[in-house]
Amino acid sequence: MKHQYVIEEFKLEESWRLFRIIGEFVEGVDRLHDLGPAVSIFGSARTKPGTPYYEKAREIAALMVENGFNVITGGGGGIMEAANRGATEAGGKSVGLNINLPFEQKPNPYSNINVEFNYFFIRKVMFVKYASAYVIMPGGFGTMDELFEAVTLIQTQRVMPLPLVLFGTEYWGGLIDWIKARMLEAGTISEGDLDIIKLTDDPEEIVEFVKASKKD
């Protein structure tokens, strides 16, 4: 019997599903263990080629490669495609961590290292484990999930305090204002937690920020 949702697989043959999970972890580690310094770039799968944010993601990825960093994305279309494209065009390692979904997600042709996942949580571990920084382009629910998971891991000191950059003040500015007006005012976060996130519209500033953090 085929289940619609991956989580339903745990209701049957749980032990065998655990082997499948372990297998995905092992494959991810084997494929990426010698990747070298890399930046994970997140963003919408729906952003079209030629649009401003697509071209900026492509530019940022190329700049990262030119400055000694490889690029990791979710391997799909939109921003992910743009970042993989920019990294490949610049001659770097361009990683696509593709997730098998019933809609929307199809591997893009620009990644030169591809790893397939069935489980989101394993895929997200790979994003975090092999990244020296996170660049968050405009995106939807999936991008928000990746953003706040990274913020939470840094805030709770479960990972090193790596650079986390939101690109696009017009897109993300309202979210930052809400965080300050609601979370900070209510005392659910601390003033210092705001320092985790950097907001910018300048690709060169992102590169310099990441490079400076690497030296520290």
From TrEMBL:
GO CC terms, sorted: cytosol
Keywords linked to the UniProt accession: Cytokinin biosynthesis, Hydrolase
Gene Ontology molecular-function annotations: AMP nucleosidase activity
One GO term of the biological process aspect: cytokinin biosynthetic process
EC number: 3.2.2.n1
Catalytic reaction(s) noted: AMP + H2O = D-ribose 5-phosphate + adenine
Entry protein name: Cytokinin riboside 5'-monophosphate phosphoribohydrolase
Organism, as annotated: Desulfoluna spongiiphila
